[in-house]
UniProtKB/TrEMBL annotation:
Signal sequence annotation: none
Keyword presence, ATP-binding: yes
Region spans: Disordered: 1-31
Species, as recorded: Labedella endophytica
The protein, known as: Cell division protein ZapE
Length: 346
């Protein structure tokens, strides 16, 4: 092993991670940040009773495991008992603890076969294994948790509708989170009306549980993401490297360009073994494609709780133009909050 005196920063832009379908499936578990998540260590905000109510409803859901009824289809707002539908959908703003609760449910669910992943990871699994083999792999699982449910692509919508409907028919239960109510998925992103039937079919399998509240990260953070001048940035990278950390050092443009060559499901491989991420010469972008790739990357960095050292424009100001008023507004706001937390941890 190299000593700290000879250690040098690595470049994420030089990494090209590859995962087989089997490896993707093996990674379908809560991220390290939520490895110990439970209903007991969730801290509901007393000002928002729906948070404490959500804990009790999910406890009931976890404690009444039974094969879901056939028929119906994934999100009704009718007040029913939690086990009347095979799935539960956690709807609420970012930073209210939905992922913590989803992970707590996963831990509480009977095993041994249960899966936890983001929407992107499940679609990537289908891409790697093929639809039939994915169904074969997931059939018989007790619970499928889908974090950050998205509807950015009509093809993914129809594929996930079909996949989840097949799994529900064999007894698998479902839980999902999103910052967007089920009936608004896809709104402002594509012609959702053209896919209304698919969206309704997907939503019919879920009872919707609304969780109100404010972003817990912003309760302790103010202002903007931390940024450094170039000299301070270089000194911080050198200091962390000398301390024996595995540090990455990339220019913002180089990383953004490289993200376009890596499937988002493989972003976790980019940061494997990294203790601290360095991004220099950060600037705003008006490219929606670049912005969405950055959001997906930051999600994986946040899951892994890797601090970021940055120079240039504060990372929470990278989404330029009218992005914050478009269909992806909630995604960008969530990412801004996470970038503030990650740079504050530096």
């Amino acid at each position: 092993m190299a000593s700290s005196s000879t250690r040098s920063p690595v470049s994420l832009a030089e990494r090209s991670p590859q995962f087989s379908g089997t490896e993707l499936a093996q990674g379908l578990a809560p991220p390290r940040q939520f490895a110990e998540a439970s209903f007991e260590n969730y801290r509901p905000d007393a000002e928002y009773p729906s948070q404490a109510e959500a804990v009790e409803i999910l406890r009931t859901f976890a404690g009444s495991w039974s094969a879901p009824a056939r028929g119906g289809g994934l999100f009704s707002r009718k007040k029913k008992t939690p086990d009347t539908r095979p799935g539960i959908y956690l709807d609420g703003g970012f930073g209210v603890g939905k992922t913590h609760l989803l992970a707590a449910l996963w831990h509480a669910a009977p095993g041994p076969r249960k899966y936890f992943g983001t929407f992107i990871e499940y679609t990537a699994l289908v891409g790697a294994l093929g639809y039939a083999k994915t169904v074969e792999l997931l059939t018989g699982s007790t619970l499928l948790c889908i974090d950050e449910f998205e509807l950015d692509d009509p093809g993914d919508t129809m594929m996930m509708t079909r996949l989840l409907t097949e799994l529900v028919s064999t007894g698998t239960r479902l839980a999902a989170t999103s910052n967007t109510p089920p009936n608004a998925l896809g709104e402002g992103r594509f012609a959702a009306a053209d896919f209304l039937r698919e969206i309704h079919a997907l939503s019919g399998n879920f009872d919707t549980l609304r969780i109100d509240g404010t972003d817990y990260r912003r309760r302790t953070l103010e202002g903007h993401a931390t940024t450094r001048d170039e000299a301070d940035y270089a000194a911080r990278i050198e200091q962390a490297t000398a301390a024996g950390e595995t540090v990455s050092d990339d220019a913002f443009d180089a990383l953004i360009a490289h993200l376009a060559t890596v499937h988002p499901s493989r972003y976790i491989g980019l940061i494997e073994g990294i203790d601290r991420i360095g991004l220099s010469h950060v600037h705003s972008t008006e490219s929606q494609a670049e912005a969405l790739r950055l959001v997906a990357f930051i999600d994986r960095v946040y899951d892994a709780q890797i601090p970021i050292v940055a120079s240039g424009v504060p990372l929470d100001e990278v989404f330029g133009g009218d992005m914050l008023s478009g269909g992806y507004r909630k995604k960008y706001l969530r990412s801004m909050s996470r970038m503030m937390a990650l740079t504050a941890a530096d």
